[in-house]
Each structure stands twice: as C-alpha cells, then as structure tokens.
Amino acid sequence: MKQRNARLTILFCRLASFVQAIVINLAPVLFIPLREEFGLTYEQIGRLILINFATQVATDLIFGYIVDRLGPKPFVVAANVLSALGLWVFALTPGLFANPYHGLIAGTVIFSMGSGLLELLVSPIVNSLPSDQKASDMALMHSFYAWGQATVILLTTVLLFIIGREHWRAIALIWTVLPITTAIGFMTLYIPRFVEEQHRHRLRDLVRIPSFLVAVVTIGLAGASELSIAQWTSAFAEKGLGLPKVIGDVGGLVLFAVALGLGRIWFGLRGEKAAQSLGLYRYMIVGAAAAVVAYLVASLSPWPLLSLAGCVLAGLAVSLLWPGMLSVTAARFPLAGASMFAIMSASGDLGGAFAPWFVGIVADRAPFLLNWSGQLFAGGLTAEEAGLRSGLLLATVYPLVMVILLLRLQATARRSAQRIER
C-alpha cells in the first residue's frame, strides 16, 4: 500500500471514529428533552443505552468472522450508511408509532449496528496499515472519538438553547451529513485484508489463553468505566446537581470529552516511547486508579461544581483505558485478525451497555435509596438527586476492579518479556 493512501485511510478512520461519537453521544444530550416530551422513565433512558451497546455487541460477534473472510471495505462503507439511516429513523419515526418509544428503539438499533461495525473495523484497519508507530496511530484515531463527543455535545447543546428543545429532530438530521460523507470517502480507498487466512490465529485457540480472557474482561471494565459517566453526565448535572443544562453540558460533558481527547492526543504525540518497557500498562493502572477517585468526587461531593469537576477528571483518567487495551492485546496477538477485535469490542460494548443501564435502574429506585443516602451525601437531597448520585457511586467498582486486573496483566507481560530476553 502506498504511504499516501495509507495516511488517507487513517484520516477516514479518524472521521469514522468521529461518526461513532455522533451516534453514541447524541442521544444522551437529548435525554432530558426526550424524557419531558415522551414521559420516559430513567430506566427507559438507560435501556436505550443498553440497546445501543447490546446491538453493537451482537454486530461485533456476528461480523468478526465474516470480515476476516470477505475483507473490511464493504462493511466500513455500510457502517457509515447505517449510522446516517439510524439517525433519520430516530428523529422521524417516533411520531409514527402509537408508543413513540418504539420509534426511538428502532432508530437506536439501526445506528448502533453502524457504530458496532465501525468499532469492529477502524481499529484493525489502522493496525493493519504500514506504520512504525501503531500505538500512537491507535491513540490518535481514538482521540477523534473524544473530539467528536465534545463537538456533538457542544453544538447540540447550543442549538437546543438557541432554537429550542422541541426542534431536536432537525438537529439529529443535521448530524447525518458526516457519516454520508465518510461512506463516500471509504468507497474511493483501497483497504487490505487484515490477516491472510492461512496465517490467522483461530479464535478458538485465543480463548484458551488465560491472559487473553483477562484482557477481554478488562476492556469490558474499561467500557463500563468510560460510558457510565459519559452517558449520564448531562442528566446528572441537570437533575442530580441542580445545574442549568447549558452549564452541565458545556462545563461537564464537553470538558469530559476534551479531557478524554487530550489524554489520547498526549499519548499519541509521545509515540511508541510511552508504550516501551511495559509503560502503557503503568499509564492504564494510574488512569484506572484516578477514575476511582473521580467517581467518588463526582458522587459524594456536597458542592455541585466539584462534582462536575470529578466528571471532567474522569475523562482524563479513562482516556487510555480502551485504546490502551486494544494496543497491548494487538501487540500480544498480532495474527488474530478481526475476530480478536470483535471479541474485544463486544466485551467493551457489554460494559458500556450494562453499566449505564444499571445507573438508570439505581436512579429510579431513588425513593428507597433516600432512606440511607443521607449518611453518604449532603443533607437536603431530593429523591432524584440521591438516585443519580447513588448510581454513579456504585459504578466506582468498575475502575477499581480494572486496577486489579491490569496489575495481573502487567505481571504476565513482564514474565513473558523476561523469558524472551533469556
């Protein structure tokens, strides 16, 4: 592959990561307008997140083997088309159903299929291209997800404020321009197969390796750690902290995304030096530990602005967890192909599906939680505030367990490196 074409392919992979940010983060900004217009419960809102990521999991598992056999190009084009189509359905079909929630579900399923394919494809595409800085390319590509998240949240929040919440459908349709453009771009590119069939590691062999199974569980916790707070910061700031929506979205969710992007940009600019001598494991361990602190600050602080700062800190803390796990696992199993990325992506999506849903379930149990939450939180909380704070507090377990598993993976990698040196 010519170097120029490789760099152009990486550029469109970065745009595809931006598209994924659109379809994952647009709905959370609209949670409160949707709740108010259609009378949704927090559990129903959380269920949309569950459906989103559960669909991505199914897509990852179904198409991993097929992509290895047929090649990635037709699927990466289809992924962007499905992303655009899903947003159209999400915006326009609620008015066609007796229960508008069914229209929201239909749109969510379609654009989640697109997002699942993008997640399955863009990382192995970048990893397969000729480069001597694969970890940096991976981190920089994933940073575009963060910049997409920040851009979607900021522009959507501003437009909701300017033209009114009742016009959220038009805003959703505007965002379909980028996936359509990216689909056209991928049509013009040559994208090679990831690993030739005769050289590829079989998935049935990978799942027998203990360190691979630990890595799969760990990236699931990475997804849970990132998405629990990313998907709920907007609603948490407005309904859990009592802040105006504009301040909560811009000062919390946008800055969360900026912190997420800056962490990935920093790692990308440092290049491979940051990944040498097991350094990437150390960065991830520190990040997961910092995420524990951030979750505790966000959920327990009696001062709303400090809680919001905890949400922002969480963005920086989790920035390397997902791309870092993909990088170290791809380096450990270089001939695994799309099937390995499918399992890793599916696990991350499962964490991103069930963890935010669990936050919503806890929030809906607020009247019960209010009986004991006074011992943890500042006095005078409403049931809604207590429920949202409790949901985030219980989510602290995800980065905490991740620290333990990362320490085990680091020890395994160190022993493997010592054997090679001998």
Task: Give structural notes.
The structure is a single chain. With 422 residues, this protein is mostly helical. The protein has 19 helices and no strands. Helix 4 (73-92) packs antiparallel against helix 5 (100-128), helix 4 (73-92) runs antiparallel to helix 7 and helix 13 runs antiparallel to helix 15. The two termini are 36 Å apart.
Reading off the top of the CATH hierarchy, the class is best stated as Mainly Alpha
- Reading the helices and strands in chain order gives HHHHHHHHHHHHHHHHHHH
According to CATH, the fold-level topology is Growth Hormone, Chain: A
**Strand proportion:** under 5%
State the end-to-end distance: 36 Å
Structural class given helices, strands, pairing?
mainly alpha
Mean pLDDT score? 82
Q: Any idea what the CATH architecture is?
A: Up-down Bundle
CATH homologous superfamily assignment:
MFS general substrate transporter like domains
Poorly predicted regions are none
Overall, the morphology is globular
Q: What portion of residues is helical?
A: over 70%
Oligomer description:
single chain
Number of helices: 19
Count of distinct structural domains? 1
Roughly how many Å is the radius of gyration?
Answer: 21 Å
Describe the main β-sheet briefly: none
Q: How many beta strands in the DSSP annotation?
A: 0
